[in-house]
Here is the input.
Amino acid sequence: MTTSSTVPIKVPYVRNPLFISALDVLNDDIVDEEFLVDKILPRACICLLSGSSDTGKSILAQQIALDIALGRKNIIGLKTNLRHKKSLYFSTEDFRPRWAKRLKRIELTDEERKLVENMTLFFEASKFSASTLKYFLVHEPVDIAVIDVLVDIYPGDMNSATGVRNFLNPYKEIARITGTTILFIAHTTKKSQLFGGASKGNVSGSHSIEAAMRGVLELRNEGGDDATRLLHITKSNYLSPADKKQPIKLHLLPSLQFENRGEKVVTDRIAQTDCIRNAVIEEHLQGRSIREIESNLKELDIIVGRTKIGKLVNEYKDSNIAA
Here is the structure.
């Protein structure tokens, strides 16, 4: 009795195309368009614009989205690299009547009024999802999709690192495959606005929020000027440390548009303001009166009036109550 053995067929190896040679990457033709808006908004990724409730972060985001729809070559004084000249704005706080009022306040030429059609608005928070966004962007490409605000579409605990990370992952993939910059709007903690400078760690919620972003911006009030803001680049994977240290000074016009007048911001002055605030609070925590604080700081060549000291102390007390 004879037996026959089956000879196994050797299948030739074929490399999975997901494994890419570095040489092929080196030989790629590169178009230097890492930014949608120079310095502040990288292309094809998720980014974050943060700020306290009174800084005008939604106003700035709306301006950016509208200017992109109008095809503007510069936004707040920064160069744009537009492909579609279209934008999408998902709004959970400002609904249709408020948008109508805001758009009517902006001075537009007859040609610009026609181009406003290139901006799409979405107001139904209960019907918004990552899959809804992906379906729209695949069929109607835009340069930027703004989600205002993050906390209104995230169903879980904002302090849950795992929950936040899992929630944001689909948006990172959508940005990558569609080439869209997805800009989330988020709040900063109240204490961060009162005490300490701009930082990516100021975003309210889990650190996983800023960790997932390729770019993080923080809009802050400057001193006592109600119309002046500083736009800080607190995180960017594509900028030098020197560029990230230089905030952009913006002025809020009566038309609710921000204007960049090209003013140089002295970063040492920002640091000095933070030092004064911290010195006042430290003296306050030692139980000293406003008059005593003024006198002690004067001995250190720090000249601060009693009115300013009182304001800083009251802000500190209010922040502790809110916390």
In short: The longest helix spans residues 267-285.
